Structures are given as structure tokens and as C-alpha cells.
Amino acid sequence: MRSVDEHRQVVAGLIAARRPVSLPVAQTLGLVLADDVVAPLSLPGFDNSAMDGYAVLVEDVAAATDDTPVRLPVAEDIPAGRTDIPTISSGVAHRIMTGAPLPWGATGVVPVEATDGAVDTVTIRAGVRPGQHIRRAGEDVTAGTTVLRAGQVVTPAVLGLAAALGLADLMVVPRQRVLVLSTGTELVAPGTPLQPGQIYESNAVMLAAAVRDAGGEVVASPMTGDDVDTFRETLRRHTAAGHVDLVITTGGVSAGAYEVVKDALSGTVEFVKVAMQPGMPQGAGRVDDTPIITLPGNPVSALVSFEVFIRPALRAAMGLPDPDRPRRTAVLSEDLTSPRGKRQFRRGVLDGDAVTSYGPPASHHLRWLASANCLLELDEGTGEVAAGERVQVWDLR
């Protein structure tokens, strides 16, 4: 059997980064910058007021106190957005709003709270220091400065800075476009009455959500029965246009009859047994130059396989940080057994420094996986682990 690490390398070798693209700023949240961003202008672009108040010459209000206020005529009203910037002269004040351009010659801004707020002759009860309550041009960003670096994830704050700099587009690493294809004649869509032997399709819903959670884009998530021709036609219909970077299938890869994925792709995809539990039957290869990863059909096997093989490779191809789940050791609260020669991934609940396995190890127990917050990783040489020992844990939180 192929080792887990060997199969991880095979999968990682198939999933490659897309060429960087220029996208509208609003569409880049969560993506990774492909180029450095150099500021085309300064921020602020002009001296402006940091307060609602009155622009003044500092020496005109130096003596102002509660007991000896200074009264000045209000010569101008300057709201934010005014484009004709006036010049202030000695002995007057200009009423000014936060963000409004500072009048030429003004050396300070008196907050409205230190005045009576008048619009004709203002009474000022406190002086200000030179430059106080003034935002100087370029004190945040100087034009020509590199403000964002390639490899940085676009966050809301990054979007705010890009918009403030007047950037319409950003060069980013685009999302991986993924087709999730679920197989099985027994599958029916939710809302359809079940016949004997039928089950509701859940793997495509689950894996599509996992792709999005990893940062990828789901192109489609159809399901097909166990007919080889139908499966091939569905696959080619979605990949022919070249809008799919990766195909993930689930089901149809075991050793029994009616294994539609195996029957349809033998000779194109390499089907192997990986030394792990759950998730032993796996496949990887290319169909018409499109990478394809074939996962088992049992739901726990499918999602664990995604976590182990696909998620890290997918995130790495998009340049996203922390492609692997956080890993740590925790104290096991019970005795466990594991099949020697296979790496076992058990559902668990992590609480502080303690971890408890959660539910049976079999691959169809989806309920337990839905409430687990970690995976316990027991390596191939482990047969028994005693309570109190430290074990490797993948933190899924």
C-alpha cells in the first residue's frame, strides 16, 4: 500500500497555482496578492481637520481660558468635501468639520467642545498647540511607498486601503475552480421521497462546503448513477470548456462491482490503496489535462481524505497561509487501539489539553464527525495507546 505521505505528495503535484489575474477590488476578499502594491498618492492627500471645530492661528487663542475666553468672528464655513480652500487671516476663525481641508495659513483646530459652537462670533475657552488636531498630508501613506506585499491575504482592511488609494483592481492569485462529482445509483436529492435502498446525497454538499471553506470556488456539484457513459459525459461536459482546475469525485473506487469511477477512468487515473483508516481506496491522475482526485464514498472517509490530501494542496496552490490544519499534542483520556500498518484518523473532542475519541472509528458514522472538533492521528506503528499518553491532534476549529 502507498503511504499517506506518498499520496499527499502525488496530490500536491497535481494541483498547481493559476496565473495571477487582475480583479475588481471588491472581488478580491480572501485572495492572495500576486504583486506588491505601491501607493499612487499620499494619504491624507491634503492637510485636514481631525475634529469638528474651528481652524485658527494658534497665537490668536493662546490666552483663551474658561475665565478669559477669546471671541473671534467666523469668516468661513468649511464642510468636508469643499474644494475651494480659503486662506485664513489673523483675528478670525473658520468653522470646520472633521476631514475638511485646512484653510491655508491655519496652525491649529479648536474642538467644538471648547467653544460655544456659534456660527457668527465664536467664544473659545481653550487654546491649542501648533499643529494640534490637524492631520498632515502624507502622514499615513507617502506616494511611492510599498504599502502591501505580494503573498498578503486581502482582508477588509486591505480593501479599505486599496479603495482609499483609488485602486480599481488588484493583481491576485485566483481561486481554484473545483468540480465536485458524487456517484451512486442509490443517491437521490433531498426533498425526494426515498425508495427502499435509496439514500440522500450528502457527500457533494459536504465536499463542496469543504472546498469553499478551504478558499476554493465550486463550479458545480452534480451527482450521477453507476453508469459509465453517463459518468464520463457528465465529467467531460464540465471540464471541456477549460473552466475547471480540479475534479473531486466521491464513491465508485472500491474493489467491488459497479465501481463507476474506477471503470470509467482506469488507465487514466492511478487507483491505489493508501495505508490509512478511514479512506484506504484512493485515486489520482488527469482527465483531459484536468487533475482529478477520486475519494471513497463513505462520508467520513471522503471528508477525512479531503482534509489529509486535498485541503493543504488546494490552499498551497492559492498561496493561502497555513495550508495544514494546526497540529498539537494532547493528553488522551481513554485507552485506544489502532490497526498496525495503517495511519488512523479518529474523530475527537479537544478540551484544553485533553482529547477524547468521539464515536466509533467506522467510516459511515457521520453524526460523530459533525460534532467533532479535531482528528486524532495515530501512526502506522501504533497498535495501542493508553489513557494519559500524549497523541497527535489536528485542530479543526
Automatic annotation (TrEMBL):
Query: What family does the database annotate?
Result: Belongs to the MoeA family.
Q: Which cofactor does it need?
A: Mg(2+)
The major lineage groups are: Bacteria, Bacillati, Actinomycetota, Actinomycetes, Mycobacteriales
Q: What class of enzyme is it?
A: transferase
Q: What is its EC number?
A: 2.10.1.1
* Keyword terms: Magnesium, Metal-binding, Molybdenum, Molybdenum cofactor biosynthesis, Transferase
Identification of the protein by name: Molybdopterin molybdenumtransferase
Biological process GO annotation list?
A: Mo-molybdopterin cofactor biosynthetic process
GO MF terms, alphabetically ordered: metal ion binding; molybdopterin molybdotransferase activity
Looking at the record, the residues that make up the MoaB/Mog domain are: 179-316
The record lists the catalysed reaction(s) as: adenylyl-molybdopterin + molybdate = Mo-molybdopterin + AMP + H(+)
What this chain does, per the record?
A: Catalyzes the insertion of molybdate into adenylated molybdopterin with the concomitant release of AMP.
Pathway per the UniProt entry: Cofactor biosynthesis; molybdopterin biosynthesis
CC annotations in GO: cytosol
Enumerate the InterPro entries for this protein: MoaB/Mog-like_dom_sf, MoaB/Mog_dom, MoeA-like, MoeA_C_domain_IV, MoeA_C_domain_IV_sf, MoeA_linker/N, MoeA_linker/N_sf
